[in-house]
Amino acid sequence: MAILPVYNAFMEKVGEREVRDEVFALPIRKHVLYEVVKWQLAKRRSGTASTKNRSEVSGGGKKPWRQKGTGRARSGSNTSPVWRRGGAVFGPTPRDYSYTLPKKVRKLGLCMALSAKNAEGNLVIVRDFGLKGVKTKDFASFLNRFGVRKAVIFTEAPDRVLDLSSRNIPHITLFAGAGLNVYDILRHTHLIIKESALESIEQRLGS
Q1: What is the pTM of this model?
Q2: Distance CA 57, CA 173 (A)
Q3: pLDDT tens-digit profile of 49-65?
Q4: d(Cα 197, Cα 176) in Å, to the nearest integer?
């Protein structure tokens, strides 16, 4: 079992917490993280790019000029792709980019992302955030004490005071109860977890 220090809002060590090795101390396999991030980003793609083909553009229905005798190239419709404002050829159409990834791989990727932050020394466990009311300045002071600029913060339940206090600070992403994911963990420098949320993470990811 790995042992992580627990801090209060003033960066004072107030205890220690044993955590499961299979969640916070796994060897890192980059190809697993890559596969999970690629899957996440594919799910987020809107896939709404669209063009009109020759059957969808306005016009057509009449041959522009007779087939022979004009000296011009023959033409059957003004919706042809070779004409100006004609239909597009092989243009994009709305599509779904998402695909399935085994739950086992997704779970393994999340454990490895948590383990990576722990190995880097960028995983912080806090008992509380020291916020007595909605105050962005107080939360900014909390981040400065820990030397944090870009962070994912995970709590066991929605916290209105924390949410409103952090809303105007850039590069801070909050997750409450669910939503913690590989992509957001890796794109932020630090991961801050409230001590009371550790149990829910281990229940979800522990074998």
Answers
A1: 0.85
A2: 44
A3: 999 999 999 998 889 99
A4: 9
